[in-house]
Amino acid sequence: MRAINTITLLLLIIGGLNWGLVGLFGFDLVATIFGEMSVLSRIVYVLVGVSAIAQIVPLIRAGDQR
């Protein structure tokens, strides 16, 4: 489970940095690398979204330990 948490956390960091670039400069790094709404771009966006959902579980578990 630790590997999944690490991978999803890295994907969330990538997604967060990409949204920061979009917000600050109007620059979508994922679209620049993989193409505007190409299959690869969509896969990256979906993986970031799934990673966010996956990170809800550790967040809830951490809250339960308090």
Describe the structure.
It is a single chain. By secondary structure, the chain is an all-alpha fold. It has one domain (2-64). 83% of the residues lie in helices and 0% in strands. The protein has helices at 2-25, 29-34, 39-54, 56-64. Helix 1 crosses helix 3. The mean pLDDT is 92.
Helix content: over 70%
Major β-sheet annotation: none
Number of DSSP-assigned strands: 0
Strand content: under 5%
The topology string of helices and strands comes to HHHH
Number of helices: 4
Rg over alpha carbons: 14 Å
Overall spatial form? elongated
Structural class: mainly alpha
Stretches with pLDDT under 50, minimum 5 residues: none
The first-to-last residue Cα distance is 21 Å
Average pLDDT, rounded to a whole number, is 92
| Tally of structural domains | 1
